Structures are given as structure tokens and as C-alpha cells.
Amino acid sequence: MKSFFRRFMRPIIAILVIYLVFLLGPIAGLDFPIIVGRIQESPKMLVQFLIIGLANGAIVAIIALGYTMVYGIIELINFAHGDVYMIGVFTALSTLSVTGALTTNNPVHLVLGIVAALVVAMIVCASLNVAIERLAYRRLRNAPRLAALISAIGMSFIVENIGLIWAAQSWLVPSFGTTGGGAQKSFPDLLSKIMISLNLDPNLLASTGLGLRFTIKDLLVIVLASILMIGLRFFIQNTRLGKAMRATAQNRDAAKMMGINIDRVISITFLIGGGLAGAAGLMAGLYNNTAWWFMGFRVGIQAFTAAVLGGIGNITGAMLGGFLIGLLAAFSDGYMDARWTNLWVFAVLVLILIFRPTGLLGEQVGEKA
Amino acid sequence: MSKRLFVTFSVLVIASMLLAACGGAGTTAKTLKIVSSLPMTGANLVISQAIVNAEILRLEQAGGKACGGKYNVVYEAWDDASAALGKWDPAVETENANKAAADPTIIAYLGTYNSGAAKLSIPILNQAGPLVMISPANTYPGLTHAAAGLTDPDEPDKYYPSGIRNYARVAATDDYQGSVDANLMVSLGIKTVYIVDDNELYGKGVADSVHQNATKVGITVIAQEGYDTKAADYKALMTKISTSNAGGPPDAIFIGAVVDNNVAQVLKDKVAIMGDNETVKFIGPDAIYTGALIEGAGADVAEGVYASAPGLAFKDLGEVGKKFLADYTARFGGATKEPYAVLGFDTMGAALKAIEDVCAAGGDPTNRQAVRDAVFAIKDYDGALGKWSFDANGDITLLWYVVGKVTGGQFVEFGSFLP
To answer: Which residue among B225, B236, B301 sits closest to A49, beta carbon to beta carbon?
Structure first.
């Protein structure tokens, strides 16, 4: 009986899933003839959705790296990570406000302000992430897995509430206004402002007459994300510390016996993950122009999905997963019904967990996992 | 330093004892309690606070007493939102309703702000006396009456298990708001509209109603679509909409949503893809008629957004309304811009009038049933909105809507519209 299940479970689930997709698909806008018709009608729209999907995917990918690195090294899903990213958005916005970049029209001042915001956001988020690890996770490292997980959810709530308080501090950022910390706050569109002050069109493809939008914002997000990803990959593969991280991920005890300071390596993992979240915070602020105390939650879940999709613990997989999620969401918004976009994103998560639990590129975690 | 602190504390302690003694010895009057249940955590705080202030003001004008001093009337503003959700929370609203039902001194429940919350609390309070509810803001028609295509077949009766109506409201309902917004679009010369909604009871209700009414007055509705209220951005959705009208953008986008549901982000991406709000107009219902939208989107992005809300344009208010605005400014040290403040004032006004009417008829205002009957009997009440009555369903008879337009970073009254 047991072997029967083992043999036929997957085909049965596969048939069920295919049945559901064909039954529910049209309700959720998955109507192939219409989609194909619309792509033929206007192929350049496809390119446009590709650009939007790539830029959004890049942000998700950078956050997914933080999830996957932490999971790779201590097998903990750090649910507070999305909220660390949210703190990155607020740090960046506050830095821009303090440096006067929000009120100036001088392009040099604006660029310097953005660079300062990037550095400050990365430092603050890195420190916050290390502090979270030190306070909440380190002493639970040998406790049951569930204890650390619940403590991660608790940290997530704490950080969200910090964001809620922060968003009400209008002495720091005057545009926070008087409506309290609960509402979305505006993150001014500084990149377009720089372009306009230089008498350039923010849309880099405006002069080509194609009617496509590839703005300075898309460019910055994709370029900055690529630099960070390549840098991280280089660090992990080619430096002593990167080697120590990989060794710790493979087998913590053996790494300890080889003289690697485990606590330090784990701290550095959190430091890098937090720094990436801070950078993602600045990118998201400049790209989507919103700061909101709750914004880390949904992006966090999407990034987690991306990490699982690519193979949790696998850094290349997280990048790939992030881009795929961004593209999937853009295509669902663009060609299907926006009401159902989440359905498709999380349907992918379910399918991956059923059919390929190790993710697209395979897990890279220790033998204990 | 420590001596001075000690003296200060002693004075405070003695003063508080004296006050307590006065309170205990001076009154034999019974206490009637009125509570409000509104979302006071999250983006709705500004609107809710304006309503609460107006209710406080109305009660203070009555001297906190009713029936010639025989009763002390106290008011408590309860919060039905939670920080975890950042908006009204079903668990908190249910808890509030149960708490009110269990406290026999409470004789009126002023709320809710969200129609979804009212769906939960009406049945609870209906079986507690029934305890009368007066809402300053609920616009979902099904709470009081059936509206074709908008309400479920078993509405509104399913909310009243005891068979007695206990819910009235001073806000005009969505079945009229849809018609008002359609009239607004006609007056703005709009021919095509794309409707998006947040999939919630209120947002989708308004959007459906606008859909019906716009079609009725000859406006082409290109499509109606829900959006994910927690998405990071809507650039792909807006790109799709930008070519939905035979390759170009529609004349206007109508959004049926509450401001908490990421409306600022939708607006921002709409402006980024399709240009400012004169090129493609952005119109929404009462729940986006708030400064929170402008702070979230930025004043330059929000410029030119239209929103309708129950009530009368401040410039069209009558004598009572004008006096209310002046009193509000004097009492709270600043003028209010929220149209809901006027409705909040009349909500408390209706509750106090009902208490007085019960006393005048020789009844007992601690009896919830008596107060309910008096609320439903209100006719030609001289409120801040004008002269109005409640009909048998508990709906207000004065169906004014005010339309605001964002100008220079705030909502400025554009005009008053009737359905």
C-alpha cells in the first residue's frame, strides 16, 4: 500500500494540478488564445513587461539572497529579513532628507545624497541584521528549529513596529506629514529629477521613437543589482572568508575543528545579508517611490518564494528565482487579471515544493538539512 | 530639585483627591455611555480623529448631560484597527461589539467606519437589546436595503437576527455614490473609463456601482479589474491600461478602494506611465478623500485627483454646519478638512436627540429599545448637514455628496453633487 502511494502519488498530484489549472485558469485570466493574440498584436508590449519584470525581479533577487545565505548557513528562515529591507527604505529616505537632497535641484547634490543614502542604508541594515542575530538567534542556535523560527517572526513584528514609529517622525522627514505612521509615505522620484535638471528625458528610449519606457530608474536598479550579485558571488567563491562561509554551511562541526570561528562567520553572513537588504531598500525607494512600514512583508514572502524556487541555500538560484518571480508577476498583471497575480506566484511555489523540493538549481545546505 | 519634585507631586495628589471627592459627592445623576468604534491605527487615523473630535464637540455643546441634567453622558472613542493589519481588524471590531453589548450603561454605538466591520457588529448588537448603532461613514447599501446587482439576496435581513432594525447611518450609500461619480464624470466630459478595485466589500461595491451607472449615462467602461493591494508596484498593470482604449489610454481611471489599500502606489504608477491627472483623470470614492493619499503619493503626483464623499461641500453648508466648522476650529485649534467631521457631528447629534426624545416622552433612556425607537423616529432634524430624517431602513434622507479635487497639496471642494 505504502509503495503504491510512493509510486503513484506524484502522477496523481500532477493530474490534479493540470486539471485545476485548466479549470481555474480561465477564471484567473489564463486564456491562451487571448494572451497569444495580444502578444502578436503588440510585441513591443511584451518587451515593456520584460523590462518592468526584470527591474522588480532584481529587487526581489537581492532580498532573496539574504534569505538564502542565512538559510544556507544556519538553516533558519529569517522572517525579519523583509522588514530589515523596509528599514533600509526609511533609512535611505531619512538620509536623503538630512543631507538636503529632497529639496535641492542641483544634480551633483542629488547624486551625492543618493550615494550617501546607499552607504548609510547598507550600514544601518547590516548592523540591524547582525544585532537581530546576536539578540534573538544565537542563543537559540541549538534549540529546536521551531523556537528560532518563532523568534524570527517575533523579530519581524518588532522591526515592523519600529517602521510604524519611524514613519510618524515628520521632524526627520517633513513629507511624512501629520497622518501618523500607518499610511504609505512618498519617496520622491529623485532619479527623474536629476535627469530633468540636466535637460534629459528620464525615459532613456524616448528619442528612439519606439514608444517603449526604459527609464533611468530601471537602469539603476538592474545595474546596481547586477554589481551586487557579481560582487557577492566573487566574495563567496574567491575569498578566504567566503570559503569559511561555504565550509560552515557544509558542516559546522568540521569547520569548527578546522579552526574557523563559527560565530564570526555567521555574524558576517548576517552582515552581508543586511547590507544587501539596505541596498535593495534604496533601490525600491527610488524605483517605486513609496516608503511603508508594511512593505517588507509581501516582498519578503516573494523573496522567500524566489529563494525556494531557485533552491534554498543556493546563491545563483536565489538570483534566478528573483528574476523569474518579477517576470511572472509582470506578465500576470499585463496579460491576465491583476486580481490573480499572487495566485500564480504562490502556485509556482506549491508546484516547486511538490515536484522539485530542492528548487531549480538544487539546494546547497549542510548534510544535516 | 528633589524637594521641588516632592512638592509638585504632593500638590498633584491632593488636587486629584479633591477632584475625586467632588465627583463622588456632587452627582446623583445616572451615567449614560456612548461609544464609537473607528479605525484609529493606520492611515485612517486622520479621518477617524476628525469624526471623534466632532462627536466630542457635539457632546460638549450639550454640556455632557441629557434630560435637564438627570443623566451624565460620557463618550469613549474605541479603536477597531490593529497594528498587525494597519487597518480595521475583524477580531478587534467583534471584541468591541461584544464589549459594548455586555456593558448595560452603553446606549448607543457610533460606528463603524468600514462597512465590513459593520457587518460583524450589527448582528451582535442586534441581539443585545437591541443596542442602536449610528454610522457616520458606512456606505455599503446591503447593511440597510437591497440594491440590484450590489447586494446579496439575503441582505439586509441577515444582519438583524432579532427582526428589529438597530442600525442607522447619516452617510449616503454607494448605490448613490456610483450615480454621483457617474454624474461627475459626465460633467468632466469623460467618455471612457477603466475601473480598478481592491476586491473588498466596500471597494468592489463602489466600483460595481460606478460600472453600472457609468454605462447607464453613456460612458464606455473598458474593463473592471481587481488589483493586489500589497504589491510593490503596478507598472505592468498601468502599462496594460495605457493601451487598453484602442491602443491609447482611457479618459479616466476610477479606483474603488480604501486608502490603506496601496491607492497612493496605484496613483504614482498611473502618473509615471500615463502622465498627470489632467491628461488621464483619476477619480475615487470617499475612502481616498484624505490627506493620507496626498502624503503617500506626494503633492505633485496627487495634483488633480477627484474624490467624492457623503456630505455637503463646506461652502454649501447651512447655518448649523457653518457654526459647527467655526466651533471645531475654536475647540481644536485648527480647521478640519475632512468632510466626515460634519457627519460625525450629526451622528452624535442624533444619539443625543434620541435620548432627549425618550425623556420628553416620559421614557427611560437607559432602556436600549427605547433609544433605538427614538433614533428611528428622528424626523426633520436640524443638523450640520441640513434638515434630515431617518427612513424606516435607517438611511438618511439627505443624499448630498461633496466632490473634492487635489489642488496645491490638499483636497479643495470642487462642488456638491446629488445622485
So the answer is: B236
Same domain, B234 and B295: yes
Nearest to A184 among B41, B264, B291 (CB): B264
* B121 Cβ under 8 Å from any chain A Cβ: no
Rounded to an integer, the average pLDDT of B152-159 is 90
Q: Are residues B44 and B181 in the same domain?
A: no
Q: Are A96 and A113 spatial neighbours (Cβ–Cβ below 8 Å)? A: yes
**Would you call A333 and B237 a contact, using CB atoms and an 8 Å cutoff?**
yes
Here the ipTM equals 0.84
Does residue B12 lie in a domain region? no
> What residues contact residue A45 under an 8 Å CB cut-off, 6+ apart?
A38, A39, A334, B239, B240, B243
Residue B240 belongs to domain spanning: 174-310+402-417
| CA of B189 vs chain A CAs: smallest distance (Å) | 27
At B390, give phi and psi (nearest 5°). -100, 140
Q: Residues of B with CB below 8 A from A179's CB?
A: 43, 45-46, 290-292, 295
Provide, as residue numbers in chain B, all residues whose Cβ is less than 8 Å from the Cβ of A180.
42-43, 45-46
| Number of domains chain B contains | 2
The CATH number given to whatever domain includes residue B228 is 3.40.50.2300
**Interface-testing mutation among B225, B243, B267, B295, with chain A (most A C-beta atoms within 10 A):** B295
- Radius of gyration of chain B from its Cα atoms, rounded to whole angstroms: 23
Q: Are the C-beta atoms of residues A283 and A59 closer than 8 Å to each other?
A: yes
What are the boundaries of each domain within chain A?
A: 43-355
Do B199 and B245 reside in the same domain of the chain?
Answer: yes
Cβ-Cβ contacts under 8 Å, B273 against chain A:
213
**Contact A121/A95 with Cβ under 8 angstroms?**
yes
Does residue B413 share a domain with residue B269? yes
- The reply to whether B359 and B251 lie within a common domain is no
Q: Is residue B164's pLDDT more than 80?
A: yes
pLDDT greater than 90 at residue A208: no
Which one, of A365, A141, A138, lies nearest residue A249 by Cα? Answer: A365
Q: Could you tell me if residue B76 is inside a domain? A: yes
To test the contact with chain B by mutation, choose from A50, A339, A342, A344 the residue with the greatest count of B C-beta atoms within 10 A, namely A339
| Contact across the interface for B298 and A289, Cβ inside 8 Å | yes
CATH class of segment(s) A43-355: mainly alpha
**What amino acid occupies position A132?**
I
Domain annotation covers residue B24: no
**B290 and B337 together in one domain:** no
- Tens-place pLDDT, residues B101-127: 999 999 999 989 999 999 999 999 999
Band (A180; pLDDT cuts 50, 70, 90): confident
Indicate whether B134 pLDDT > 70.
yes
